[in-house]
Design brief:
- The complex is a heterodimer.
- By secondary structure, chain A is mainly β.
- Helix content of chain A is 0%, strand content 46%.
- Chain A has strands at residues 9-13, 18-23, 32-38, 45-50, 55-56, 61-64, 70-75, 84-91, 102-107.
- Chain A has a 5-stranded mixed sheet with strand order 1-9-8-3-4, with no helix packed on it. A 4-stranded antiparallel sheet of chain A has the order 2-7-6-5, with no helix packed on it.
- In chain A, strand 3 and strand 4 (45-50) form a beta hairpin.
- Chain B is an all-beta fold.
- In chain B, strands 2, 4, 5, 6, 9, 10 and 11 form a 7-stranded mixed sheet that branches.
- In chain B, strand 4 and strand 5 (44-50) form a beta hairpin.
- In chain B, 35% of the residues are buried.
- Classes of the chains: A mainly beta, B mainly beta.
């Protein structure tokens, strides 16, 4: 399985931007980078995904390194509702395999 | 409303009981999945169905038996479970499930299972 490495936890202040890093040094050319998040007592929800170019949507931005060995999920203005576990996943052959993710704490 | 509904939300069962978890998706997707989430462990993929055919079975013990009668419904039949099977069981769906790596998964809220 394609492996990703994320910090176990991070903290951020409310209303400030958050940059969540992910390393995926064994990424192959056809692996998409996906991000999901899991709010307390809920199933994971899709956040964003990309292949090579940076991506933006209403929830977040995804910055992908030129060599694709790392990526960063950017929450532009964190709110308390963004406190969750964020998973960075390489989608290979449509197998979405979750790691431990980063637990994001938002400080009011 | 995520479009994927799981029932029940909570289930307590004894080791000799037989119970079933139900998942229904209202998104018109063709693929459905069961994941298991134990405390302090990553989500584990259990089963994948694409167009009602099982395409993935990740060495799951036979005490877990999936059933996919149509593309909108997925069941997980449970019998003679062990206490270590206590976990959050999550259902998900995706458009195709046929090996397209930019597919998105849509999850239900899960069934929290406790085996006594």
């Amino acid at each position: 399985d394609a492996k990703t490495t994320q910090p176990n936890s991070m903290e951020s202040n409310e209303e400030e931007p958050v940059h969540l890093p992910c390393n995926h040094s064994t990424i192959s050319g056809t692996d998409y980078i996906h991000w999901y998040r899991q709010l307390p007592s809920q199933g994971p929800e899709y956040v964003i995904h990309g292949l090579t170019s940076n991506v933006n949507n209403r929830m977040a931005s995804l910055a992908i390194a030129e060599d694709r060995k790392s990526s960063t999920l950017i929450l532009h203005r964190a709110t308390l509702r963004d406190a969750a576990v964020y998973y960075c996943i390489l989608n290979r052959d449509d197998k979405i395999i979750f790691g431990k993710g980063t637990r994001l704490h938002i400080l009011p | 409303e995520t479009g994927v509904t799981q029932t029940p939300r909570h289930l307590v069962m004894g080791m000799t009981n037989k119970k079933s978890l139900k998942c229904e998706q209202h998104l018109g997707h063709n693929a459905m999945y069961w994941y298991k989430q134990s405390a302090k462990k990553p989500l584990e993929l259990m089963f994948v169905y694409s167009l009602e055919e099982r395409v993935e079975n990740n060495s799951v013990p036979s005490r877990f038996s999936p059933e996919c009668p149509n593309s909108s419904h997925l069941f997980l039949h449970l019998h003679t479970l062990q206490p270590e099977d206590s976990a959050l069981y999550l259902c998900a769906s995706s458009q195709d499930g046929g090996g397209t790596p930019n597919e998105k998964l849509f999850f239900g809220s899960g069934t929290q299972l406790s085996v006594l």
